[in-house]
Write a structure and sequence with these properties.
7 helices, about 200 residues, alpha+beta, Wheat Germ Agglutinin (Isolectin 2), domain 1
Length: about 200
């Protein structure tokens, strides 16, 4: 059986239709029962989003482009995400398929995309984008719950019109460099950038 036959058989076994999304210009095949497909790719594939390989992810199911052959996305990256700073579900997109120039700005931290950053989690209804750094929770020994990078305007509205307060060191934050608090939406707890750096230094030891 040739490669196309193996792929078609894997597709039939998965019982899922190809996914037509804004993450890739071609339809993606979800391979739920993909032993034949994995074998045909030497058993190893690499996620184009997180850059992890299937052996480190310990996953056999993934989203695959039949036409491009080397375009694969792991299930963790593909599934829609939630961020406490936004109401709606965020879906993974290739920003060049959403914006004419492929250029976008994270609505949480305000950072602009770099030339190699093609993927974002996007709300089509609000044109709201979140970068990978802001999307993932950050565990801290200073607080019981994971912290998310937050929009300072949202945090300032809880504290005052111009300042927000770090709940670890007690400092008032107002300048641009400290304009991205790490925030617990459940407790309204905030950490400044300096305290997060200390946290990361402790973890590295």
């Amino acid at each position: 059986m040739n490669k196309l036959g193996l792929i078609l058989q894997a597709w039939k076994n998965s019982f899922r239709s190809p996914q037509n999304t804004l993450v890739h210009r071609h339809r993606l095949l979800y391979t739920g029962t993909n032993a034949l497909l994995s074998k045909n790719q030497n058993g190893i594939w690499k996620c184009v989003v997180c850059k992890s390989t299937s052996d480190t992810l310990n996953q056999t199911s993934f989203y695959h482009c039949v036409i491009c052959n080397n375009f694969d996305i792991c299930c963790d990256c593909f599934k829609p995400k939630r961020h406490p700073g936004h109401t709606h579900e965020l879906k993974l997109v290739n920003t060049s398929l959403v914006y004419a120039q492929g250029h976008w700005t994270c609505n949480i931290c305000g950072n602009e995309s770099r030339w190699y950053e093609k993927f974002a989690h996007h709300c089509a209804e609000c044109e709201f984008d979140v970068c990978p750094d802001c999307l993932h929770p950050f565990p801290s020994p200073f607080h019981a719950h994971p912290l998310y990078k937050a929009n300072s305007q949202d945090v300032c509205s809880l504290f005052s019109d111009q300042f927000w307060k770090c709940d670890n060191c007690g400092s008032l934050q107002s300048n641009v460099a400290d304009n991205k608090p790490w925030h617990c939406p459940a407790c309204k707890y905030n950490l400044c950038h300096s305290c997060i750096k200390i946290n990361r230094s402790v973890k590295a030891l």
